[in-house]
Design a protein that fits this description.
2 copies of one chain form a homodimer. The first copy, chain A, is α/β, with parallel strands linked by helices. Chain A is built from 20 helices and 17 strands. Chain A has an 8-stranded parallel barrel with strand order 8-9-10-13-14-15-16-17, surrounded by 5 helices. Chain A has a 5-stranded mixed beta barrel with strand order 1-3-5-4-7. A two-stranded antiparallel ribbon of chain A has the order 11-12. In chain A, β2, α2 and β3 form a beta-alpha-beta unit. In chain A, α8 runs parallel beside α11. The radius of gyration of chain A is 25 Å and the shape is elongated. Chain A starts with a helix and ends in an 8-residue tail after the last helix. In chain A, 56% of the residues are buried.
Chain lengths: 542, 542
């Protein structure tokens, strides 16, 4: 006998729709539909992306023989109808993907007969296909869709449901990026923020400055060619995921100095790197030299072409003033220009970079320091990424900026593994570990009531900085915790009655999603003993 | 140019022997030996275990094309001699494995000609083979052994270098246990403490009480047959690893109650399980019932036969008094026996279990509570496992007990992932994460000076409790942190001059070991950005 039945805590509650993230609205019946072989096909207008997704989900659903851990002893369900395929239709074949893309869909699964998935765009169809795939479960030797008829109307709460992926501290093969994009799609996430380069390595090919990769990649095999990047972008797009590149300037740029020392300040100061940088090796573009603007603009020109997304991230975080005040070039410049300072130089530098970026037709995406810790005032088309201080969401939207939150104390998934400097056995600055419950409980709208401000919140983004991560362990660092954010970003914090969902309520569904992901080849970490997954409610703190 | 050369911190120090754990004594030369194809063979007396190990290492060494990260730019080394095979000989073919097994070996690699590995026992030969395998590195299209001639004399500091593996909270396939045993052997660890069963599941076959597994395993496929267990024991023995089983009584036994409710107290109290157990589900053997002694003794009889090791762990941790004081049976018993109490019952219960265990010829291994938190006084043949309080090492050895330390605040590798109860988003009781530096810095002999007490320290054991671990993530939870303990347990804390090794000094070698393990199929987590691994000393805190 199942413990949840004994303790009767959840047994009385009708089972929620077993979909992660939970759809905005849904109705369920009390029948079960037999689905021996699941056939998905397009109907009417379609698109190549939808057709490929149909092929993918036909494979996933028919190969999968999934049963939620809590259903381990449910036995064979009686079915009263037979599934006769899923017809997928879209209003428009337009495959453009961006911030204004409509991802809504409507899914109907009758007790018997053909199910229908309708969407305005190909990307809405992708979301509906993922939802559909999660409705199909094993049933003895065959499959079933339980609790039919089902009617779902769904659309995301936020347009930006992101993951920051850092390929500079440690390298990731294209295959591991593909696997991560697959996992994102299983959770309806739609932005890969690709933090491509940083002080430790420059893995990406540059046609403008080939020497950056030649001297800055960890090795030839630990590099991304143009073709690799295009494959990642295409793979992501096929899953409705935008790829926003980040080229972080003017800090975090030691690696540029291997090829261009003439552009740099404070290159690899040792052993006291901590006076010059947040982590070793130190090195920043020298903001007193106009050549660093020219360099940055050419980088922006090149990669703004390679990456089609309308948004482009130019970093701007963690600049260190000592790096410049102790630099002889900067000192000489300031001596010759007594009305200037490091602050005015930096503000002017940011302005030239942002102006040039916007002239390419892109919208600038930047870390919160650009606004809050410099004298530069970005224009209101700029998207700010909050990380240091979660109250910055309120402050920045109050000033009219669009905001994405990656508040480190909730969303930095790399944190909690202690410090990584070889001679120090203490914690890291961002310990402790962010549990899935902690991720889930974050509310990006906390303390914000103005509708205008709320409208400026584009969404949220978990970060996986890679000082202590590489492709060996990326799956378990991301999943299922990134999925916890994904539900709050897709479904919002509340259900249709305004009730704020609690981790106790959703734990069982997240267990299910975690096991589903493992079955699909994603090495997501276990949340609890299997006993707890099988006995919902029995592993709560009283 | 390599940064370590620029900063000159470590460049002046002759490179340590690139072996993990570091041998007790070694001499190196300045030549390099070419080793195109590595042939290992036995000479004179041998054993089946040694022969299988030779076969294994022939494969490992010849398949491996390993270069330490810090050597990434070393170019092709000039060689001045040619390797002509490794001859392995043992003084004795006796394959018995236990606490008194001699694991010492002597390894000589000349500049040119045949290398020799000599050991007293087959298990010493295994250790020497692992050391030898780590000396061979890639060199352009061929291989080399650098810094020859090499003379190594080596033996372990401690006889117990263990890993606690918990197959009850979550299940592990036999293959994942094999992989873990491989990894242990790469680090010269020699004890798998198999925490087989616990409240959440009973995966192991019982011929005495088949119903335990039938009702207590998570599923048929999540079970260990006798044959599975024998395969694990044989696989471990082939790598010089003893398997000590733990059947934890009288606490942590909810799962027994599924088959035998008549033996139990406080079965799965909900929702206030925390009054009765350290974690859900609650349930303890009822110590007022002689049937629970009989049950335990039969379990001991059965598994003392199945597991050949001379040591047998009978748990004894975290018993909860409320579980019994609120039990009607216990209350009735105590009412009828006014001179007894829960404490006298428990002491008597422990005594009967330990006496019976010792009558089977085994030595009892038990958690520290048996001595420190009960009125029972184990005899001095008992081995105490310390976990709650690291000062217990001193206290227990002062009383004449042999001790293994698994001090939770250094060695619980599961800790640091936050709490796992579904409705609580805080830390776990044993956060933060234990970094490899923290593991390495633990000194089991701290504050102990008496030679008699020091002699009673058998060694150390890291623990991987599996509430938040299963086979999806076990590799990265264990490695390279367990390797950090392994070096301190094999090599000791100090070098031959008495200098206490620091994490800054050993980091580069551990990076090397981590990458070697990844190459051998162990998903060990990265310690730092690859840039740091390549630039020893450049990622220290100033």
């Amino acid at each position: 006998m199942k413990i949840s039945a004994i303790i009767g805590l959840l047994a009385a509650v009708p089972s929620a729709l077993a979909v992660w993230p939970i759809p905005q609205t849904f109705d369920q019946g009390t029948s079960n539909t037999k689905a021996h072989w699941v056939s998905i096909h397009s109907q009417g207008k379609t698109s190549a992306i939808v057709n490929r997704a149909i092929q993918r989900y036909n494979t996933i659903v028919n190969n999968e023989n999934f049963l939620a851990p809590a259903d381990y002893d449910r036995g064979t369900l009686q079915t009263s109808g037979t599934f006769a395929g899923l017809a997928v239709s879209v209003d428009s074949s337009d495959e453009s993907l961006g911030m204004s893309t409509d991802e809504s869909y409507t899914l109907d699964v009758p007790v018997s007969g053909q199910a229908t998935l309708k969407a305005k765009t190909p990307y809405g169809a992708l979301r509906g296909l993922e939802t559909f795939s999660q409705l199909v479960t094993a049933n003895g030797p065959t499959k079933t869709i339980a609790n039919t008829p089902i009617h779902i109307e769904d659309a995301p709460k936020y347009v930006h449901r992101g993951l920051l992926f850092d390929t500079a501290r440690n390298f990731y093969s294209v295959e591991s990026i593909f696997r991560t994009l697959d996992a994102m799609s299983y959770n309806k996430m739609n932005v890969l923020h690709w933090h491509v380069v940083d002080s430790q390595s420059w893995p990406i090919e540059s046609k403008t400055y080939p020497e950056l990769q030649e001297k800055g990649a960890y090795s030839k095999s630990m590099s991304y060619s143009y073709n690799d990047v295009q494959r990642v972008i295409a793979y992501a797009r096929d899953r409705g995921i935008r790829v926003i590149p980040e080229f972080d300037v003017p800090g975090h740029t030691y690696i540029v100095g291997l090829a261009h020392p003439e552009l740099m300040s404070c290159m690899n100061k040792q052993p006291n790197w901590d006076k010059y940088a947040a982590e070793p090796p130190s090195g920043q573009l020298n903001i007193a030299k106009p050549e660093t603007i020219e360099f940055t603009n050419k980088i922006v020109d090149e990669y703004a072409k390679l990456f089609p997304d309308e948004v482009f991230h130019v970093g701007g975080d963690e600049v260190n003033r000592n790096c410049w005040t102790e630099d002889a070039d900067v000192q000489a410049y300031l001596a010759a220009h007594p009305d200037e300072s490091v602050e005015t130089l930096l503000a002017s530098w940011y302005g030239k970079v942002h102006d040039h970026l916007e002239a390419t037709g892109k919208q600038a995406y930047t870390w919160e320091e650009t606004l809050f810790h410099s004298e530069y005032k970005p224009n209101n088309q700029t998207i700010l990424q909050v990380w240091m201080d979660h109250t910055s969401v309120d402050k920045a939207t109050a000033k009219g900026y669009r905001v994405v939150s990656s508040a480190y104390d909730s969303y930095y998934l790399d944190c909690g593994h202690g410090a990584w400097l070889s001679n120090f056995d203490g914690n890291s600055w961002c310990d402790p570990f962010k549990t899935w419950m902690h991720v889930y409980n974050y509310d990006v709208t906390a303390n914000i009531t103005s509708p205008e401000q709320l409208d400026l919140i584009l969404g949220t983004e978990v970060a996986a900085w890679s000082e202590q991560i590489d492709e060996t362990v990326i799956d378990s660092r991301l999943w299922p915790r990134a999925a916890a954010m994904a539900e709050t970003a897709w479904s919002g914090k509340t259900d249709s009655t305004g009730h704020v969902r609690t981790t106790a309520e959703v734990a069982s569904r997240l267990h299910e999603q975690r096991f589903r992901m493992v079955g699909r080849g994603i090495g997501a970490e276990p949340m609890q003993p299997l006993w707890c997954a099988r006995n919902p409610g029995a592993c709560n703190l009283p």
